[in-house]
Amino acid sequence: MHGGRDNTTTEYARAAASLRTAAGSAPSMSGSGTRALEAWFLGPKAENADLFEKLIADAIRDQAHWRRNFHPDDPTHITEEIKRSPAYLEAIGSLKDNHQSLLSFLKKSVPFFSMRYQGHMNWELTLPAMLGYFSAMLYNPNNVAFEGSTATTILELLVGDDICRMLGYEISGPDAPRPWGHITCDGTVANIEAVWAARNVKLYPLAVQEALRTDSSLAGAAGIEVATSGGTRRLVDLDPWDVLNLRADDVLALPGRLQQEFGIPGEVVGKAIAKFSVQTLGLVEFHRRFLRDLPSPVLFVPGTKHYSFPKAAALLGIGAENLRDVPVDLEARLDVNELRKMLETCLQEKRAVYTAVCVIGSTEESAVDPVDKVLKLRDDMRFKGLDFVVHADSAWGGYHASVDRDDFDMPARPGFVPPPPAMTLGKYVTRQFRQLGKVDSITVDPHKSGYIPYPAGALCYRNSAMRDLVSFSAPVVFHGDAEPTVGIYGVEGSKPGAAVAAVYLSHKVIRPSKSGYGKIIGQALFSCRKLYARLLSMAKDSDPFVVVPLNTLPKINGKSSEEVRGLLREVDSKTGQEIEADRQLLAFMSEIGPDQNILAYAFNLKNADGTVNASLDLCNRFNKSLYERLSIDPGRDIYGYDLIVSTTDLDAEQYGNRFIDDYKNRLGVGASSGGRITVLRSVVMNPWLTDTPQGSFIDVLENEFRKVLTEAVGTIRGSYTRGF
User: Fold this and answer.
1) Domain count along the chain
2) Percent of residues, the chain, with pLDDT higher than 70
3) What are the pLDDT digits (tens) for 320-359?
4) Is residue 659 situated within a structural domain?
5) Can you spell out the DSSP letters for 466-528?
6) Domain-located, residue 616
7) Are 543 and 699 in contact (CB under 8 A)?
């Protein structure tokens, strides 16, 4: 491991040197981007198909030109004579026939592009992303090593910086460590890497301490001091508990300090420490040697956690027992008061904490955890001697930062003020994004709300030195410091450079700031909140059902709940243009619904006498029945689907009783036993959902809901009267 800033600066210097030797102009992320949202997508009816076809043809022709001009005097092989041979003609015929069969079969795929699709976190891909992926795919670069990806490795370094800036990490701060980001296959791998790095940061100083005590090559550095909650002390004199609670930046600075302050060569430092690291000894032996008198460290996650965290706990030897769920509040956000109690217990038990995770846009509820309060809580615990890193899982929500991010890396345009997004983030969510740059690591998925093809996840570190604790290299593909590389860091080996090119070109054309991605996501937020208002307004007294979104009504100073409902009806009834012209209504709209643009809701049916069903079991059966009508069945014709949503279950074991009991009460089943609620989920990524030339598509969605509700109510009531 090396010092973060110096090592990363050297890497970027190598990348710059590589760029200078490349033919033509060097790529960069700077530029103004573009402004026309309609030019960024193929379109729900493939309106930009002719343009896309021409651009794809350009990519193929350019590939052919490149091949023909690489040593043009070299012999050809596929001659016209070969092309006329029976075997060749048979092979081409088979290719065409099987390709047509594949094209036919692929039409059974999910219609992500449709306004009727609101199932999972998929929608249209941006034109530049598809074009970038296709163009780079023809070169088949492997970003595991520079020699297999001499172009796309450079692009990955640029993309990593661009994502860091979008999320709030400062690239060129005078004193702060330099951040660093890289592309992964997905958010699961990024989260596993983040937990891996957090575990290693926590345990690394114990290895340094043992090396200082026992390795003669480090004898001259035995006096190195570190800051603790009790003051500055020699590292070799600390007990294991104090060593486990050093600040991450201080831990990551240790190798560089041993080199710079004591003149010990980096290779010697690395070799001496590696003998005692958890990477070398394994977790069981490491605990036996250094933690035998302390309980196992833990990892805190909110109840809304992604399944990648249990995976990480299993793969890293942490164990499910040490993955602790923090209950959530009534808005499905991590409850900081509950986390405080759990951390106080750790302090009493002298149980170290690897990391606390904040979810920035949970995949079921679209909830944004209170980053600001978690960071403040960490400051409070530091004074008591308990320290830990904070990781943000913003796989879904990270690109929402662009809604609040001023344009950056752009040439000056005097007098130009980018138009605001159609819908801003709420005040609470905005506050969390403005604190995001203070967390230690962030997961974000360009292939979710970045509208990029799979696979394109990403992980960013506030301090680039953190990546060095999860670095490995293979001699067969790496050649030391002579080349820039990203492949030695993290979980993956081979990975497609095409994914990097997709992110690069999409970011180049659609900047991850207010006038680019902020515009797309702002429109999607607007559509989601219009749908939220419609759901709250659609059930009339005469309807045999009620609908209860997961998110509670906003509390507005000086307004009763009935007045708030009146404003919601106003939002529902007005067009987008009318709302944009009403600043007060627009401001109200930014505070309603989910934190981002995934909308969870449940229906409950009414009894024959008009009262609301009081059975949780029947309510869950009703929503499962609706989902069966609104989900994709592999046996059905895809053209027969009029509306597609998804479903999930909310469980008290994960979320906590307070959250579940409140939602049960709002559904009218509060007196019923059970702690699991089935809800439907609409992921609204479509920026054009509310205003089309034919009017608002929300009306179409309501009609589709009403059709399946009528069917399901009849079926459920009939089954119930027969002893359902």
Assistant:
1) 1
2) 92
3) 999 999 999 999 999 999 999 999 999 999 999 999 999 9
4) yes
5) GGGGGB---TTT--GGGS--STTBSS-SS-BHHHHHHHHHHHHHS-SSTTTHHHHHHHHHHHH
6) yes
7) no
